[in-house]
Structures are given as structure tokens and as C-alpha cells.
Model the fold of this input.
Amino acid sequence: MRDALDLIALFVLPTLIVGIPLYGLFKKVPVYEEFVTGAKEGFNIAVTIIPYLVAILFAIGMFRASGAMEALTEGLRPILGAIGFPVEVLPMAIIRPLSGSGSTAVLADMIKEYGADSIFVKMAATMFGATETTFYVIAVYFGAVSIKKTRHAIPAGLIADLAGMIAAIIIVRWFFG
Done:
């Protein structure tokens, strides 16, 4: 099974990189011009979202620097241990819905602490790929278009994040035991 997944993974990215422009050409879409137009729009959006980005990154930095992350982790150790959730991956589970760069920093810290081949690092890396930066998306993208009422977006995003985190732990244990 693992060899088959490795073979598939080898071809996914090249297929997308070549396939999408070829599909656009087949549909007679001016691929390069559309790409440039999208890049211009992306730059304008980036300028709009910078204040939201700074605010959320500041809050995450304060949370980690204050020691609150370590206190929360230690406080939840007995509960998480009882349900089979490794407390070592809790920082990723907390930071990932908030920030992509913050969760990248958590993953880098975990690699330094446990080693790249650790099951905890594999779980955290799988969580990274299986979840979304829910609060970041809400703050930045909803803020960029002036949406004030998020209604069901936050609960739906957090439920999806929780499902991704649980699946990451189960799948990594299944593959790497």
C-alpha cells in the first residue's frame, strides 16, 4: 500500500502543473493572461489583509511567549491521555486553526525536539495538511470583504478541523503504528 501511495505522490504535482495549463489551452483560455490578472488581484488583496494578519500573528506570539501554551498542555495531559490524544501534538491542534505560519513554527519546534521521524511529528505534519487555518481565514478574508457576521462559518470550520486532527492521529497510528 505504501509503495502505491509513494508512486501516486510522485506523479500528482507534475500532473497538476502540466495538466491545468493544458486544460486551459484546450478550453481556449488565455492561460498566461489569466494568471497575470489573478496575480494582480492577489497583490491588492494582500495589501487589504495585512492589518488582520498582523493582529492574529501578534496574538499567537503573545500566547506562546507568555507560557500559556505550556500551562494548557500540562493541564490537559490527563484528559488527553485518557482518550488517546498525544499531548505532544496539542500545540499544533491549538495553533493550526489560528495561523499557518504559527503552526509551521510549532512543527519546526517539534522536529527539533522529537526528530523528523518521530510519530508525533508525523501526526503534527498530517494535521497541518488535513486542517485549515479557520480563524485566520475568517479574520482575513471575511475582513477583507467587510463581512461582520460569520454565522456558521466558524463552527463548520472548527468541526472540520477537529475531524482532520482526529483523522490525522488515527491514520498516522495506522500507517506508522
